């Protein structure tokens, strides 16, 4: 009934979206949801071009970055994706996901995301470790990154620029940019306090 997979998916998504009364949050995960799955590239993908053209504007589109698990996210890539999809993407961030290898647990700070990305995003979802308690540092440092991003939104000229602080330099303490090292120290301090608080609770 449809000339392409993209047109079929967009048609079904649009119909469901309208049948539900066009809810404020309605997310669509495309078959090509990262750069490595696009052929030959996001900006030249017939599939994504069709999705961007056919999908109703109120529908959010999920994107994971260069890869399924992306070590880095740049404003340049997100600008390219926004142009193809005709809307800002919602990042589905798999930085900490370990459901594909439960022998690994990721406890480091939120990093590899260039400052100023918020201006290029419609939203961000963090896919956590499968182990609940192991997500304290990831979620805590994501919060630190988000607070700094809110401040950077007031300075759009700096969007996408990645100073040394974004790679862990302590300069972030001085210039107000996000410092993964500083965020990790704050998260560890609060995590120890939370562990101690739980240890003092009756019945534990």
From TrEMBL:
Ranges for domain GH84: 1-150
Signal sequence segment: none
Gene (name only): Mgea5_2
Gene Ontology molecular function, alphabetical: beta-N-acetylglucosaminidase activity
PANTHER family per UniProt: O-GLCNACASE (PTHR13170), PROTEIN O-GLCNACASE-LIKE (PTHR13170:SF23)
GO process annotations (BP): glycoprotein metabolic process
InterPro entries named in the record: GH, Glycosyl_Hydrolase_84, O-GlcNAcase_cat
Protein name: OGA GlcNAcase
A Pfam family this chain is assigned to: NAGidase
């Amino acid at each position: 009934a449809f000339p392409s997979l993209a047109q079929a998916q967009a048609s079904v998504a649009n119909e469901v979206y309208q049948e539900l009364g066009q809810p404020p949050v309605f997310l669509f995960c495309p078959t090509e949801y990262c750069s490595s799955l696009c052929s030959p590239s996001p900006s030249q993908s017939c599939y994504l071009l069709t999705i961007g053209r056919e999908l109703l504007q109120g529908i959010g589109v999920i994107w994971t970055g260069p890869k399924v698990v992306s070590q880095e996210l740049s404003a340049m890539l997100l600008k390219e994706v926004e142009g193809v999809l005709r809307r800002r993407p919602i990042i589905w961030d798999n930085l900490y996901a370990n459901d594909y290898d439960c022998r690994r647990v990721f406890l480091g700070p939120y990093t590899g995301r260039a400052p100023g990305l918020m201006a290029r995003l419609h939203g961000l979802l963090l896919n956590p470790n499968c182990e609940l308690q192991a997500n304290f540092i990831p979620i805590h440092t994501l919060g630190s990154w988000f607070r700094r991003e809110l401040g950077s939104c007031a300075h759009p000229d700096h969007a996408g620029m990645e100073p040394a602080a974004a790679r862990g330099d302590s300069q972030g303490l001085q210039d107000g940019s996000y410092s993964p090292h500083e965020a990790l120290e704050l998260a560890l301090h609060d995590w120890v306090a939370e562990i101690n608080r739980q240890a003092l609770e009756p019945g534990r």
